[in-house]
Amino acid sequence: MGLYDHSQYVSMTMEFRCNLKCVHCMIEDTMDRLAPESLDSFNELLEHNKATRQWSGLILTGSEITLRNDLVDLVVRARKSGFDHVRIQTHGMHLAQESFCDRLVDAGVDEFFVSVAGSDAASHDDITQLQGSFDRTLRGLENLEQYDHVHAITNTVVTSNSYILLPDVVERLRHLKRLMQMEFWVYWPMSETDEKDLLPSHMDIHPYLTEAIKKCRSLGRQVEVKNYPVCLLAEEGGAVVNSQPHLYIDPDFWNEFMRNGFYQCKHYEACSSHECLGLSTSYIKKYGWEQENLNPVTKDSLNLIKTIT
């Protein structure tokens, strides 16, 4: 179970540019034609939430939200409209400038969701395809340490390039006191096939993901795992949290997203877990149904998972 109640957050996609070329980027083929939310849409959201208090937190996201010159103004306006929390989702490189961190925190950003692709400069930079990106992201996370009221969250996309690195990612970031939660999002292609050959098998991922979860918890950090079968994690299955904040995004995005074909599993009808997404079409085409490895989660085992987490 994670630290944050996703139902209390709303996410708005305000940017579709990025200055990284991450090999696992799922929207690289659509960034040029997807449109960010307009300022009119942003204003409508602020007015709606001011009147209804439907959400307590706003997430400003995009391919890279820090490329917006008016980001500070958006944050200020969000806080003035009544949002208790403002989070930005970012690759974190621009946070290496301490003055930029100061401006964001002063404006009202109190949560930073930062992508960490690898466990060191060599692995991270190879995935982002930009030399020096790891050092800048790490420096950005370290800059956040000075703000007592700020929370940091990291996300690592789990691909064939990164799954063996997961415990090392946790270890490399163990010194960060403001890092409250670590997330591991198992990669899925935005198509019916794994054309990039980045989709690892769940069984290959398993020992590294399990170790990373346990390392997080030993450090007192919350952890969330996306798109991994609950049954395979056994007592660590409570880490699987697939719920998401309400998302404002170009509707054309969903046309691509729905090609993944989640919720496929031979045991789906018998399973008591409502968090599990099952298998995607691309996964089944690559690895099959894996009935011998997957088992339906019973109500008793689900209750046990809840007591552990």
Q: What structural keywords apply?
A:
309 residues, alpha/beta, eight-stranded parallel β-sheet, 15% strand, globular
Short synopsis of the structure:
The protein has 309 residues and is α/β, with parallel strands linked by helices.
Characterize the structure shown.
The protein has eleven helices and eight strands. The protein has 309 residues and is α/β, with parallel strands linked by helices. It has a single domain, classed as Aldolase class I (TIM Barrel, Alpha-Beta Barrel). The chain has an eight-stranded parallel beta sheet.
By CATH, the architecture is named Alpha-Beta Barrel
SS-derived structural category: alpha/beta
Assembly status: single chain
Tell me the domain tally.
1
* Overall shape: globular
Question: End-to-end span in angstroms?
Answer: 6 Å
The residue-averaged pLDDT reads 94
Number of helices: 11
Strand count: 8
Q: Please give the share of residues in helix.
A: 25-40%
List the helices and strands and how they pair.
Blueprint lengths: L8 E5 L25 H14 L4 E5 L9 H10 L4 E6 L7 H10 L3 E5 L5 H8 L4 H11 L7 E8 L7 H7 L6 E8 L15 H17 L3 E5 L3 H4 L12 E3 L3 H6 L23 H7 L11 H10 L1
Parallel strand pairs: 1-2, 1-8, 2-3, 3-4, 4-5, 5-6, 6-7
